[in-house]
Amino acid sequence: MPELQARLTFWRLDSPSFQNLVCSIVLGLSPGIFTALAALGSGGGKASSTHVASVVNSSLYAIYTVSGWIASMLLNTIGPRWTLTLGTIGYPCYIGAFWFYGKTGQEWFPILSGLILGLSAGWLWSTGGWVSVAYSTENERGLFVSVQIIMTGIGATLSSIIAFVLVDARPQAAGVVPSSVYATFLALNILSIFVAAAFMIDPSKIVRNDGTSLALFSDRAKTTSIAEFKGLISVLKDWRVLILIPVMFATELPIGIQTSLNAYAFNIRTRTLLGVSYSVAQIPVAFIFMPVMDNPKRRRRNRGLLGIFMLSIICLGSWIGELGWMNGKRLNRKDIGPLYDWSDGLPFGGFAVIYAMFGALYVTYSILSSLSNSPTTLARYAGIFKGTVAAGMSVVFGVDSILPPFYLEYYAFGLQALGLAIMAFLCLTQVSDSNYFKEADVIVPLEFRDQVTELTDIALTRVQSQDPGSVKGRENSAL
């Protein structure tokens, strides 16, 4: 078997790691750029258009909620290649719509684009989440998730840097995003469609480095939408999934609040720089969480609890820090925003650190994915997770669209604190060291088979040293 492992390398189209990288690149070229655009405030428009962007995003995430929840129907029938490809289509529409809005001030195209993107984003994000957990072994899950976070962060960072350079080069057009920014973002979005269609392959063709396949996919051709719907309902009957619904709902609530506050308090070139800091923060944090979540020397339960503790420090520190910053600035949404510049010093510096910390809030999905290794079940988990996250985003943008005082939107603080407590409870009581050998459709990686064999040999040796006759009797009875 070592010879086989030496032959099978990362740079194979059918490698799980390479397929995850392809998916990660697509995320960097689609949602990564969406994040950079959102960081400009109001979807890249003027600060005065915050209301339009909040309305668009609220409808976007409402549709996304439904498309995410039913994404497993596509994943388990047409597969990840075409589900991911269809998922990229909405992003160029969204970019083009806000470019159109910046030129004409007409709202119909952004609203329509929000509906289209809401439909496709549920498919794209669910596919990405599914690939990261279904293609990885239990000791690689943190790595696969981190690669997606890092590539999405790199895409958003490079896009934000491009936007900052292009905006800063035209100080005479303060408050307006140049057409060159939209054109660049649009071209990268379109590229993601071709990457997804050209390089994603069917999961039944995936081969691990040890030569094993992922799972048995023989029944996929027989799968129907009705069967998938029943499967989704069966997953929702699991109390462990239901108890995570509030956690999923609150996962990305800060994004809606931060984009509006960013647009209100800072000018356009400073918003682009804040977008860079937000995106950059995701990269080192992913490197920090990766060895924690994949450390084979610790039990999975302990890894999860340590990850939740680290996340709690970042999450609670970010909220408390921002509340302090807002209290010191006494911001009133009824007034015209101060439009701070990055050169103003402390008003920018303090918020930049807090804003960057919010970009680091990713670990929730690892708890949900620890409950199964079955690709079919994980597809349903991925859809439920992404759909419920979108429901939370729809609510936060809907609330923000009526322009309440900023401090009233900090209900999200309490929801995230509750979510951390729920994750800790579930990790403590329900996460086991492994789910292998428990699900009939999962092909167990050789490293885990070897571990079981080694542990069995050790146990037999210990028993034999104490009572050789009992071991012989057991062996004969087994025969």
Automatic annotation (TrEMBL):
Q: How does this chain sit within the bilayer?
A: Multi-pass membrane protein
Family annotation (InterPro entries): Ion_channel_UNC-93, MFS_trans_sf, UNC-93-like_regulator
Name a single GO cellular component. Answer: membrane
Record key words, sorted: Membrane, Transmembrane, Transmembrane helix
Query: Which subcellular locations apply to this protein?
Result: Membrane
Q: Which residues cross the membrane?
A: 21-40, 52-75, 82-102, 108-131, 143-167, 179-201, 241-261, 273-293, 305-326, 346-368, 380-398, 410-428
**Name used for this protein in its record:** MFS general substrate transporter
